[in-house]
Amino acid sequence: MIDYKIIFESGVTETITAGSIELNDVLDKVEVKDDDGNEIDGVYLNFEDISAIIPQS
User: Fold this and answer.
1) pTM across the whole model
2) What pLDDT shows up at residue 19?
3) 1 and 21 Cβ atoms separated by less than 8 Å
4) Per the CB 3.0–4.6 Å rule, which of 2, 21, 24, 32 could disulfide with 43?
């Protein structure tokens, strides 16, 4: 799993640990997945509200 820093348009930042974060244009959301490729329940991110997604090492 990798830590991702999410920066929102409002200036708020959040760190999320996930296997991957993928953009889903069809559903207008960002899919947060675990290492097995399964979507993590309870995490919903609207990509219109996000300024940046930065993987942390």
Assistant:
1) 0.78
2) 92
3) no
4) 32
- Residues in the chain, overall count: 57
Q: What is the pLDDT of residue 13?
A: 94
Residues 29-40: tens digit of each pLDDT: 788 999 998 888
CA torsion 21→6→17→43, rounded to 10°?
Answer: -70
Tokens of 57: 């090492």
Q: Name the CA dihedral angle for 13, 15, 21, 24, rounded to a multiple of 10 degrees.
A: -30
| H/E run at residue 50 | strand 50-56
d(C-alpha 16, C-alpha 19), whole Å: 10
Tokens of 35: 């290492």
Distance CA(15)–CA(29), nearest Å, equals 17
